[in-house]
Amino acid sequence: MKQLDVCLTPDLLHLHQLNNVVVVVADIFRATSCMVTGLAYGVGSITPVATVEECKALQEKGYFAAAERNAMKVEGFDLDNSPFSYMSERLIGSHIAMTTTNGTLSIAKAKSAAVKVLIGAFLNLGALVNELRSEQYDVLVLCAGWKGRPNLEDTLFAGALAEALKDEFILVEDAALMAQRLYQQGRGNLLNFVANSSHVRRLQRLGIQKDISYSLQTDLYDVVPVLRGSRLVAMH
């Protein structure tokens, strides 16, 4: 039987074996929610990069560029890290370069060894579950966390995935069980459950409440972003 495991932060990724594993990266507030939204709204591709410098270089080549550090837009870039910025008609068919504090770094860490890197959010949970059911490989959910520390919303998402796939996958390690039980506890009202979490407080100070409630909605889109080369595209 296939196995599903959870890595609570990229700083723990070295403890996991990635050969023959599909990695699902989750950065719910807000990078992976942006990626899912953008591709659902017709963006051609999103190139995730680890540094602001790499993002700037792609911007100079004609990409739309999105850069976020510490939950705020970096000066001189086209887009911030709000999913609502990715709904614009001007972005349909475009290529976007993106760098964020946690999410794009997680992708950079996973892509060298994983069989495949998929992007997960509550927004595309059902589509992702269907895709993973059809995969022959084990799955690792990589939670982006916050600067090396675990966070509540990404762990909840990992738990939602574990709960949905529990009949097809063995939940191997305690991190997967912890995430699943956390989700079982909070799923009745995710918004309430994350209300005191560190990243919610961080975003609320910046007045970004609408991004929080938006990113906790389930199954808005039937799109699964997959990393092909250096670009994320919608899996068809």
From TrEMBL:
GO molecular function: 2-phosphosulfolactate phosphatase activity; magnesium ion binding; sulfopyruvate decarboxylase activity
Keywords assigned: Hydrolase, Magnesium
InterPro entries: ComB-like, ComB-like_sf
EC numbers: 3.1.3.71
Catalytic reactions of this protein: (2R)-O-phospho-3-sulfolactate + H2O = (2R)-3-sulfolactate + phosphate
Cofactor(s) this protein cannot do without: Mg(2+)
Membership in a protein family: Belongs to the ComB family.
Protein name in UniProt: Probable 2-phosphosulfolactate phosphatase
Highest classification ranks of the organism: Bacteria, Pseudomonadati, Bacteroidota, Cytophagia, Cytophagales
